[in-house]
Known about the structure:
Blueprint: H1 6-27, H2 33-38, H3 49-62, H4 72-77, H5 88-91, H6 97-135, E1 159-164, E2 167-172
Amino acid sequence: MSAYSPWVNGLLEGTNGKLLSHLKRLCAPNLGEDEWAKITKFEDLPANWPTHFDIAIEQLNARILPAYKFSPDELCLGIVVNTVTTPIEISSSELEEASIAIQNDYISQQRLDAYSHIVEHANKRKIAFDKRVQASKDGVIEYKMGDLVQIRDSKLDFTQTVRVGIKTNRCTG
């Protein structure tokens, strides 16, 4: 990964913002929205935030992502959310191959469903973008400073990036 990568920086800033928001609410649950508007910096968080860190991460991983319609736990770990807890006798016994196959099939279907949802979400965004282009004068969009744009560099179409240690080598072929 390159040192200067604006889109990755933006993803990290968004994730950190969500994490800080959860930590704020966990550290001082009695504060209302107006009080939290005053606490906007990391340094202003109460000193007990490390005790709530794991809970905040757990909450973020359990939340359903609107575009995917699944949580990160469901997609990455195959965890089934909102189901009856398995009794300890069953969960600690040796698994049968059929149970493993059913779980793997469930996980595969869940990921396919999430992929379908994200493609549908992307199509909706593209339709909204196309409407904006057609509504603008002469089909030209004028971008303002700070707008997110995607650039396609066609000379990279036939290259493959290979990571070796911390170096990045570009191979053509």
